[in-house]
Amino acid sequence: MPLLFIIFVVIIERSLSLPNAMEEVLYFLKPDFSKLTSAGLLYALRQSFFALSLGVTAMLTYASYLDKKTNLVQSRISIVAMNISVSIMAGLAIFQARSPFNIQSEGGPSLVFIVLPQLFDKMPFGTIFYVLFLFATVTSSVVMLEINVDNITNQDNSKRAKWSVILGILTFVFGIPSALSYGVMADVHIFGKAFFDAMDFLVSNLLMPFGALFLSLFTGYIFKKALAMEELHLDERAWKQGLFQVWLFLLRFVIPIIIVVFIAQFM
After folding, report:
1. 3-state DSSP call for residue 190?
2. In which band, very low, low, confident or very high, does the pLDDT at 1 lie, cut at 50, 70 and 90?
3. Is 181 exposed, middle or buried (0-12, 13-18, 19+ CB in 10 A)?
4. What DSSP character marks residue 180?
5. What residue intervals traverse the membrane (predicted)?
6. How would residue 213 be classed by pLDDT, with cut points 50, 70 and 90?
């Protein structure tokens, strides 16, 4: 992750030197409240599932390695703040390159796989930076592999190496069609979508929201309140009890309704 920050700083410096860079910065940072529609809010919710790995137990997997004294509330705030910071840095790194390279894409994979390669191509040692960037993004995705490794091994270190290799190979093999979906498999479509887009739709719009829905219901209705308060480091003070009740109400009623509405848009 520190490497990713360093690379972003280098990319931002190069992007800001491009023609019309400040116009693109304003386009990226200036709020457009006309986009604040129900569809826009649902898209933001979709992005939150992806950006924070909600619904795939990534946070639970990471949390299982934390010390019992770790304050989960403070950690949550740090994670969200870090995520927002990285998102802003990514936008500053990419959007300025749209005009000079005549890129019309508004988002999605093309911003990373089309804009960034062209930007790196114009930089000294750009190929090296791009390789480092890809390496940094791959290492950031290790958590997705760790979820399955941890579930299978149950933190038995004697089995980790074997299952890491097995699951890594399976992930690589099953990822090949997605990697080729804009190349030799461009003609392969699932429900009218390229293979990569179909998998993205399945994971981001269905699997992750369903996972978050079940997790919310489990935590709200089944998980013991006393244990939840202990994990959240909440004591018997009235204001903390009040916050806990608000949190519980959101988990039980508000969040499930929002997620169901979100899923219904794609059913």
Report:
1. strand
2. low
3. buried
4. T
5. 41-65, 77-97, 128-149, 161-182, 202-223, 244-266
6. very high
